[in-house]
Design a protein that fits this description.
212 residues, alpha/beta, five-stranded mixed beta sheet, two-stranded antiparallel ribbon, globular
Length: 212
């Protein structure tokens, strides 16, 4: 396996606080404990644009995968990140990867996003937040922030416990092989900071998982 030492600084692995709350959801973004390089992604269920279940491990077995977790189509930073993928998606796919973008948005909302774009990226829904929590990248929003998002932006959140308590994923990128083993991760609690498209492409190119 090739070593990705050039990108070691990008792997945010120094999260020391334990995740709290139900289903491994952290109290704050700074306290998430994500799956890291050398660990395996869990076999959890996502949903396609028609609300049909998609098992993550079955998806990964098809080919090496770039997984992008974003907060939702309402987030301007996420939209900018996804728009930037258009510059590299063909090059990454030519390396033998599939690109999958995952958010808590409902399948219906994802379908609206797909209609408004010409992405080659596959959009999947984590509508019950099971994937984000299983990967350790979910965190609870402060109530005042959640209410502000609801009232001013009309955002629909995943109902976690039948109350107003809501959560979001920390923006994250994973590159995994067909066995579900993570070879690269970028997880940043600061939602305003995202990995650049070119750096993501270089990471995928350096790993060259299709040849392993």
């Amino acid at each position: 396996m090739k070593k990705l030492s050039l990108f070691a600084l990008l792997c945010f692995i120094n999260f020391t606080a334990l995740a709290t709350g139900p289903e491994n959801i952290a109290a704050t973004a700074d306290e998430v404990r994500p799956v890291l390089n050398g660990q395996s992604l869990p076999d959890v269920t996502l949903y396609d644009l028609d609300d049909k279940p998609v098992k993550l491990q079955a998806l990964l077995k098809q080919q090496p995968t770039v997984l992008i977790f974003y907060r939702g189509g309402w987030c301007p930073y996420c939209n900018a990140q996804l728009a930037g993928l258009k510059d590299i998606e063909s090059k990454v796919m030519d390396l033998g990867y599939q690109i999958v973008a995952i958010s808590p948005d409902s399948p219906a909302r994802l379908k609206e996003q797909a209609v408004d774009s010409d992405f080659k990226v596959k959009l999947l829904s984590d509508k019950d937040f099971s994937v984000s929590s299983a990967l350790g990248i979910g965190f609870f929003l402060p109530d005042d922030v959640a209410n502000r998002y609801r009232n001013k932006m009309g955002i629909e959140f995943v109902a976690l416990d039948g109350t107003s308590k809501v959560a979001l994923p920390v923006p994250a990128v994973y590159i995994a092989d067909q066995q579900g083993l993570v070879h690269f991760n970028y997880v940043n609690p600061n939602f305003r900071v995202r990995i650049s498209p070119e750096l993501l492409y270089q990471a995928a190119k350096t790993l060259d998982l299709q040849q392993q």
